[in-house]
Amino acid sequence: MMLAAPVLVAATAPVPYRWTNVTIGGGGYAPNILMSSAEPSLAYLRTDMGGAYRWDSAASRWIPLQDDNAESSFMGVEAIAPDPVDPDIVTMAAGMGYGQPSAILRSADRGARWSVVPVPFAMGGNEAGRGLGERLSADPNRPSTLLFGSRHDGLWRSDDRGATWRKVDGFPRPGLGKPERRQTHGGVSFVLADPSSGRSGGVSRRWWAGSADESGDHLFLSEDGAVTWRAVSGPEGLLAVKGAIAGDGTLFVGYASGIGPSGVKTGAVWRFGADGRGTAITPADHGNGGFFEVATARTSPATVAVSTINRSSGDTVWLSNDSGRSWRDLGKDARRDVSATPFLGHDGKDADFGHWITGLAIDPFDARHIAYTTGATVYATKDLANWAPWTRGIEQTAVITLVSPTDGPPLVSGFGDLAGFVHDDLERSPRPRFTNPYLSNTNRLDYAGLAPRRWVRGGSLFDGWPREASLAISSDGGRSWSPIKLPPIPQADGSTRREDLNGETPPAVSADGKLIVVSASRPMVSDDDGRRWSPVEGVSRGSEIVADKRIANRFYALDFATDRLLRSNDGGRRFRSIDGASLPGPLDGARPTRGRESQPRLVASPFAGGELFLHWWQGLFRSSDGGKSLVPVSGDLKVELFGLGKGTVHPTLYAVGKLGDVRGIWRSDDLGRNWARINDDAHQWGLRFRAISGDPRRAGRVYVATDGRGIFYGDPTGGVQ
């Protein structure tokens, strides 16, 4: 049969929406935290994919500084330099990775607005080595002078607050140039001026710079205002990754065997005088792993703290009050209160002191106020003993998928690194629920349309973690789970293999919750919660299988191998072609683009049996007769992601896509005849999106999963229109 004629589409006036983060509280890796020396209680945080934040002491929360940014690459922040004199000025280096746009961002209002200066040197805000630094430094005596240590192109200088840049020809490490594909360089790891070597208004004479490239020297000193440089001896075979200068001009350096945050096996801590002479001050019983961040106290020149990284017994922070002659392990007796963010026990264990501690700061105005960053949160203390997450306002996570069900909690999510959550209250950090098995990544979620307390999930674990199962089923709305295991499947070479351990077997549950179908190389079906399995007939390996949300025994499959939309009316046991069905074109146009983390291209409506929506290329198609006919419902909107929500006669359509030259989030209340943009230029989040879903119970409500800024939910400010 022929496809129905396309629907003409128009862009209607934008619909004002109020956007709010679903509260997790931190959740991702923040490579560094910086406390201003110009004003008490002013701090900045940089993340590797969620942009930068500023601590607002009056509001007692972190303020995201790049939600209006539309350039994806700039959400990976390479370095931040708060002005050491004027608290309103801050400069930032932004760029996700080699081959992506990079820039210096300048602000005179604490990051509320930025001017963007494109630069010729590449950044790596989300590459290996993103915990190095800080690479960007303002001269405390003349803040209009900034130096930036690049990864691939040596040392750069600006004397006009970052408006223009020139390469420092006298620096002995000019850079290793373009890296090999999928590799990076550490490059110039940090740059620091010694404030005691100059006077206000004049350039500081003494500058230090570290190198994290494997060959050659790793620490350099300039005594003529960063014009000429000489190498300074340190520990052999280790990279200078972090540095901090005390008030008396002493330089403390953390050394590591790699650029981190993974793979560091050993390290050291050294102290250097103004003459360049160094002394090893490594804590004697630090164990294995390396050292990364180093912080000094402005109010006490002899006070220094260092963080470990990749230590097998767990990372910690060491504190010295005598310039490194003796050390105290702050993690040994630390008390941690994570009641505000209980997800930190997400792997079934108590929250630990932290891992990937590459950010560490001592408050310039209060040496007992110390904060450090980890791969999942930011901890702070004011008494050196009691620690708590310092994350109010920070939502820095990578979300893989989300579902808003027809009953129970408003939202269930699947995360990268944090497994996922049942969100009973969108304003409270959720408790960990995705255990038995715990999976670091949740790639697929599905619930039974007629029995919405029945859920299945599938995911994957970090490389190297033991794998017992990567599928699970729940009968209480996702609050508790039981593992599902597939039997070994015969392979072409005559062997058998469990194929469900790598996250590549997405599950689907029937509308009544009694049947589970799993898409393995040999798709299988179970009617007893995964205890026994039978092969599915008529569908090829790698097909995308979904259950009808209202018809108990019906499943559908996109069979990419045969370019067919198939249907099963007997509980997923046998799939057959749909009489008279016709697809928009070859199913290559509907293949997953993110592998196992891709959103489903075929979605069954929760509102009516036999109602399907197919995402093919950049178009969206609807069937109201179980897949027999498909009608275009996106018009000129180039759809990237889509979801369904409560409507009046038909489902409301939500989409991430591009209409004309505007890329954003869109809503249609009339099956694609008209689309209204529902985000605005202040809410773009780098245009980094992973999933979208409407709410089936609340008209106008939409959930958006970002890649770095967590989950947002949006509601029309004037009610449903």
3D architecture notes:
The protein is built from no helices and 59 strands. With 721 residues, it is mainly β. It has two domains: 17-389, 7 Propeller (Methylamine Dehydrogenase, Chain H), CATH 2.130.10; 399-716, Methylamine Dehydrogenase, Chain H. The strands form 15 sheets. It has a five-stranded mixed sheet, with no helix packed on it. It is elongated. Belongs to the glycosyl hydrolase 74 family. GO terms for molecular function: hydrolase activity, acting on glycosyl bonds.
In short:
One of its GO terms (molecular function) is hydrolase activity, acting on glycosyl bonds. This is Exo-alpha-sialidase. 0% of the residues lie in helices and 38% in strands.
Q: What are the defining features of this structure?
A:
five-stranded mixed beta sheet; 2 domains; WD40/YVTN_repeat-like_dom_sf; 721 residues; Methylamine Dehydrogenase, Chain H; Xyloglucanase_GH74; signal; polysaccharide degradation; glycosidase; 0% helix; mainly beta; elongated
Q: What's the arrangement of strands in the largest beta sheet? A: 1-56-55-54-53
The CATH architecture name of the largest domain reads 7 Propeller
What is the number of helical segments per DSSP (H or I, 4+ residues)? 0
Residue-averaged pLDDT, rounded? 94
N-to-C CA distance = 37 Å
Task: Tell me the structural class.
Answer: mainly beta
Poorly predicted spans: 1-8
In percent, how much strand structure appears in the residues? 35-45%
Q: Assign the CATH class of the largest domain.
A: Mainly Beta
According to CATH, the homologous superfamily of the largest domain is: YVTN repeat-like/Quinoprotein amine dehydrogenase
- Determine the CATH topology of the largest domain: Methylamine Dehydrogenase, Chain H
Number of E strands: 59
Q: Using only CA atoms, what is the Rg?
A: 27 Å
Shape field: elongated
The description of the largest β-sheet is: 5 strands, mixed
Helix proportion range? under 10%
Supply the number of structural domains.
2
